[in-house]
Amino acid sequence: MNATRGTGGGSPPVVEFHDVTVAYGRRPVVWNVDLTIAEPCLFGIIGPNGAGKSTLLKAALGLVPLVGGSVRFFGAPLEQVRGRIGYVPQRETVDWDFPVTAMDVVLMGTYGRLGWFRRPGAQERRTARESLERVGLADVAGRQIGRLSGGQQQRVFLARALAQQADVYLFDEPMAGIDVRSQQHIFGVLAELRAEGRLVIAVHHDLRTAAEWFDHVALVDMRLVAAGPTAAVLTPDNLRRTYAGQIEVLDELARAVARRDRTP
Amino acid sequence: MTPIQPPAVAYNTLVVAAGVASVGFAAGVVGCLALLRKRPLVGDAAAHATLLGVAGAFLASGRRDVPTLLVGALVSAVAGLVALVLVRRFTRTRDDAATAVVIGVSFGAGVAVLSGITARGLPGGAGLEQFLLGHTAALTARDALMLAAVSGLTLMLVAAAFKEAITVAFDAAFAAATGWPVTFIDVAIVCLVAVMVVAGLPAAGAVLVTALVVIPPVAARQWTDHAATLLALAGVVGLVAALMGVAVSAVAPRLPTGPLVVLAAATLCAVSFLAAPQRGWLARRSAERAMLRQWLRGAALDRVLRAEEGGAAGAAAEVIVSAAGAGSARCRRVAEGVWLELVRREELVPAAGAAGLWRLSGAGRSAALERRRRVAEWRMILESAPEAAREGLTLDIPAPEAVLDAGLVAALCSGKG
């Protein structure tokens, strides 16, 4: 349908959703979604609450069963490329009272490559420390995760994803409920990842920042409304089709798009 | 003494049966309140704390008189619950961990004192283990009448305060805002649970009396969505389970009855999990599968329709099946069945002159076109009234006007032309 095709030529697209349908019980939450992301970029999945954005990520990761369609990474099924994919779940799903430090959490990012029963060594610790430095949290490495601010907590999980050294990163609402400075810090790291040639897919629901941050976006509300370069997709018509009836959202976006058009 | 001894024994058995049955009923009813208040383990904490009270009451009175021992049990059950509240309030411990701590400590202490009594061979002390696993054969008619009276009183209290208890369990903040003493009602519920746990001790014993408080409500919940019906049904399940214990005790007086009560309750619960309409596993599975079949049937028809529109004479079976069911191995199995059914119903027929390809028959084509029309309508509704679409759209892609207000559908779909 709305393919974001690049100039990549022979190499297979980074991610390909083919006719994906997911249902919880009898109700479809993701309905016949076709989406191709050909090249590494900052990709936003945008849509109203309950639109199936998170479910789409979980479907890509095999965390929820599909009732139709398939998802491929680098032209291969998930099982063959799992090690190249990093996932950062929503903050609410984490038990913040859990007795682990920021460093412990980030170290978990290296476990996938380490394999069963092997203990992390000096190299894993170095990777974890570097990841923490990259998100600006080296000085709180030893702190229990519940004693960090919301923004710091989110950055710890970003650091864990960095320690995974993946090629594709899936973030579920990375900016939800955190302060503006942390948001900018996180966004800076995401932009670095893109510069390194990695694909970053983030579920996001703040339209104002979406227009500033993402190169490509997909508008989703159960079905895919549109996907492609941000400016081409975030049109009043597409937004009306995605956020039916939520006039205030549209006004907000009109202002954001106007701002973005002025900036360059 | 006249020779009418057998009927006298039967009379005692009958009274005991009636008493224990009433305990089973009331325990099931009260257990519902604990379950609905999301505190199913309160009964377990109370139950394990009773043992210490039984032993204490025996040491204090020197007699193995059931009512005396049960009063001791009630005192220590309440003490155990108070300890639970204190652990929760003054430590940073989760509910389940706090409950486990209270269960472990109070039960350990109870068993220690009890075995001390047994080891010293105090007169009458040997029978106290009956309170560990339950033993209805040891009950007298007088004991049973007391148990029945306690159960009756409990049921009357629940009936009187049904509205209050359900409201607090459902929405404590609302109840508090209405001006009700939520804490008092909570304490009352917990105390009733403690009372019924103690009353259930002779039948099921301290270790297993939870079977009378927790299992019947869980079993009953599978069958009904109405609170009042739930309480009554749970009562019946508890009653049946308790009677099973009594029956076995009457036949084999040396056996502990608690395990039998548990087995009876668990059997009823398992049957409920499996066979209850709507909530039961069988019903949910078959509804889910029927929905999946409809979805895959539509996807298969659509695949063939698109192939034909693309100029092909039809589509190969493998293409049809995998297009519909690539999601998982289970999907694929169902998709294969769906394909066979489409062929059997002659909605798919062999394409003339193209071996191995299948095309749509007249009936198949109109079904495929009808589905496509509905999909288009749903997409339109999704754009203008997404809440309505989320409400009404299911995997079988029903006609919008069949599940939504017909006027709304007409307005939404015609407005866009």
Description:
The complex is a heterodimer of chains A (264) and B (417). Chain A has 264 residues and is of the alpha/beta class. Chain A has helices at 53-60, 78-81, 102-108, 111-114, 122-134, 150-163, 180-195, 207-213, 230-233, 236-242, 247-262; strands at 15-24, 27-37, 42-46, 68-73, 76-77, 85-88, 168-172, 199-204, 216-221, 223-229. Helix content of chain A is 38%, strand content 23%. Chain A has a six-stranded mixed beta sheet with strand order 6-7-8-3-9-10, sandwiched between helices. A four-stranded antiparallel beta sheet of chain A has the order 2-1-4-5. Mean pLDDT of chain A is 86; it is low at 1-8. Chain B has two domains: 5-277, ABC transporter involved in vitamin B12 uptake, BtuC, CATH 1.10.3470.10; 283-415, Arc Repressor Mutant, subunit A (Orthogonal Bundle), CATH 1.10.10. In chain B, strands 1-3-2 form a three-stranded antiparallel beta sheet. In chain B, β2 (348-350) and β3 (357-360) form a beta hairpin. The termini of chain B are far apart. The interface between A and B is medium-sized, with 23 and 27 residues.
Low-pLDDT ranges of chain B: none
The biggest beta sheet of chain A reads: 6 strands, mixed
Shape assignment of chain B: elongated
Query: What's the mean pLDDT score of chain A?
Result: 86
Counted up, domains of chain B total 2
Ends apart, CA distance between termini of chain B: 97 Å
**How large is the share of residues in beta strands of chain B?**
under 5%
Low-confidence stretches of chain A: 1-8
Oligomer: heterodimer
Number of continuous helical runs of chain A: 11
| CATH T-level topology of chain A | Rossmann fold
| Helical amount of chain B | over 70%
Strand content of chain A: 15-25%
* Largest sheet properties of chain B: 3 strands, antiparallel
